[in-house]
Amino acid sequence: MKSIERTMVRACREAALLLTGMGVLASMPAVAQETVRGLEEVVVTAQHREQNLQDVPVSVSAIGAQDLNEAQVFGAAEIAYRVPGMSYAEFSPGQAIISMRGISSADDGAGMDNSVVMFLDGVYIGRLANINFEMFDLERIEVLRGPQGTLFGRNAIGGAINVTTSKPTDELFVKAEVAAGNEGHLRYQGLVSGPLTDNLLGKISYSHREHDGYVDNVILNKDQQDEDTDSVRGQLLWNTENSSWLATGDYMEDDREDMGRVPIYPGGDPNTVELWKEIAGEFGKVAAPFDGDSYREAYGVSLQGDIQFDYGTFTTITAARHAETDWNMASIGVPWRGGVEVNDNITEEIDTISQEFRWTSSLDGNINYVAGLYFLNEETDRNEQFWVVAPAGPGGSYINVGNEISRQENETNSYAAYLQGDWDFADRWTLTLGARYTYDEKEITSTSVNCGALQPGFESYPGCEGVGGSLAIIAQTFKVDADDNWDDISPKASLQWRQTDDVMWFATVAKGFKSGGFGGAPGTPEQATTPVDEETAWNYELGMKGDFLDNTLRLNATAFYMDYEDLQIVRFGPTEANPDFGSFITDNIGEAEIMGVELEFTWYPTDNLRLSGNYAYLDTEVNDLVLNVASGALDVSGSELRQAPENKGSLTASYDWPLSGGANLNFRVDYTYSDEQINDYANQNTIIDEFQLWDARASWRSANENWEVAIWGKNLGDEEYISHSYVIGPGVIGVWGPPMTYGATVTWSM
Q1: Which residues, at least 6 apart from 587, have a Cβ–Cβ distance to it below 8 Å?
Q2: How confident is the model over 382-403, as a mean pLDDT?
Q3: How far is residue 697 CA from its own chain's centroid?
Q4: How far is it, in rounded angstroms, from Cα 432 to Cα 414?
Q5: Which string of DSSP letters, residue by residue, matches 368-411?
Q6: Residue 152 near residue 144, CB atoms below 8 Å
Q7: Does the pLDDT at position 221 exceed 90?
Q8: Which of 472, 477, 478 is nearest to 573 (CA)?
């Protein structure tokens, strides 16, 4: 067990050395470099107003449209590679897990929430299945690290991701792109934007993306893990003399075949172990006895109005979103005892409406503030079935021998009021104070059916016809109602000092809050009706942002310590009621201490060469964590947090080579490294080994910038790695990361 005192000293020593070095650098005189390009200003809305990234006393990473395009970023996993302290994993789009500084949530039940929240053009996305994350028409992505409850609301205990799309242009703009590559990779997308009338602007964009499966099912003798995604987004922007109104509608459809679960640690009977050993560690191999699939449909509308007054801006954001997911896959990843396999099928519907009113004062005086009111209603209907199948005879056919069903119907109402103000109380000094009050209430109906242990009134329950066995994942049959509420005041205080015009220091204390709820797939009435308490965390940060060397080097660094209480833990494992297989259990257990250092830099050593990168050192330790397992109480105190690699970082080198006539060549190389990490507290076999990825891209752009042709490659080292793992049944299953892919892209715009 690591000593908290020792790790704290190490973290503080590294942070002190880093920040002291940056302070010395800030004091150095600028060196004139006539041929060197200067850094561009990055605009963010991390404090609900447009500000220069370097002026915001918040640990925030911003990724612009050009970088998203050049890096071939297609989803949240690739964003995580470019943000210090962020990790991403999924078995399906409806089961995404985002971790920030080691804070995450793995319970995707209808009555629980994520620990990292997302926003799409200012609209809160509570459940990640509801996010339209296509990258073609994005302006930027902002990732705010650490608790962001004051301004960004409910459950932002780990951080917030703010996705901003490009807005309609006041001149005609057309863009089209086609890409093709190995593994059946095909992408085509287009965008049209421009004026419709004198005061009305419009934009519409479309994107299609597909690739073949890259995982070989050795039982079915076919490739799996393919993808087929379509997305469309439309916007209307109406401008008046003192206001602007933006109406947005988006739709996306995502269809995949199996998520390619692979056994990575053996369990079960000898026959299972042998098959497990046969494919374990062999990249791209799975042994599911039947096909799986994943389907997602999500759409939404929103209306944002910004009305200008003499002393500030009044903003209203009204939104409604709907999402449906349906995924079906082998849970264990390999035939188990007697050839039995468990098929997990989940269907989910999510309907959300939200309303925010916000007042943002002008920047004329030495006191400025943001105040707002917020309301959200979310209804989630989630049905999960565990089909137990067994061989029916030769030829690979299977029959159902058991069925267990869990249905949760949850309604959440959330209310909030917030206020945050900045006071420039002295030359180069600013004090920020803020707080948010949140009140959440949840009502849930849980229906659990074990077809092998039916109760009166459930004899003819759909799905149980002719099926009598079970593995007791759902131990009992019942239908119960439950409700509860949680409230919290989340304060924040920050002190900002501008050492020079180009260097700023900040110190922040903030409280994070994540609402309680009801655990997913409850196996007993007690589990269904016993609420999970809220989580809280106090976060302490010291940060610095600076532009150096005649505006050619940007360094941003943060050192932080977090005291985390009442962890919401979810795990699948043996219990007293089910010692042979396992059940899902969610509970509040333990505390944690988190500390670390985060660094981001951009440097132009020459006019044509840009070097950039990020690094995060993370030290996490769980205290007083005792889990109830089949053998009794298991003390796992001293364990690391899930999805919390100790070292993680990336480097990018981009070189522009101007050609005669005004055309340009660009060469770019990206390197990503992630330390090993665990995904289960009780079973250290869920360790995901360290991995490193190499990407590259070369492009030609015409002199008028209307044409661009690029060749690219991802995972060029063909790294064989597991991107996600979890304990299920007799062993541990995981998901293979994508193999090497390469191709070419042609882009035209005018």
Answers
A1: 519, 532, 568, 569
A2: 78
A3: 25
A4: 26
A5: EEEEEEEEEEEEEEEEEEEEEEEE-STTS-EEEEEEEEEEEEEE
A6: yes
A7: no
A8: 472
**296 SS3 class:** strand
CATH 1.40.20.10 is held by the domain 4-749: no
Residue 77's SS3 state is helix
Lowest mean pLDDT among 271-280, 423-432, 667-676: 271-280
Query: Residues 63, 64, 68, CA angle at the centre, nearest 5°?
Result: 80
The span from the CA of 559 to the CA of 7, in Å, is: 14
What would the mean pLDDT of 419-438 be, rounded to a whole number?
96
Look up residue 119 and give its two tokens: 């926003």
Query: Per DSSP, which regions of 159-260 are E strands?
Result: 159-165, 173-181, 186-195, 200-211, 215-217, 222-224, 226-239, 243-257
Name the least confident of 154-158, 169-173, 508-512: 154-158
What distance in Å separates the CA atoms of residue 516 and residue 37, rounded to the nearest whole number?
Answer: 50
DSSP, residue by residue, 106-143: ---STB---SEEEEETTEEE-SGGG-----TTEEEEEE
User: No. of H helices and E strands in the chain?
Assistant: 6, 41
State which H helix or E strand residue 599 sits in: strand 591-603
DSSP annotation of 235: E
Domain boundaries, the chain: 4-749
pTM to 2 decimals?
A: 0.89
Looking at residues 674-689, what average pLDDT do you find? 78
pLDDT digits (tens, 9 = 90+) for 691-745: 999 999 999 999 999 999 999 999 999 998 888 877 776 567 778 888 999 999 9
On whether the CB atoms of residues 543 and 558 are closer than 8 A, the answer is yes
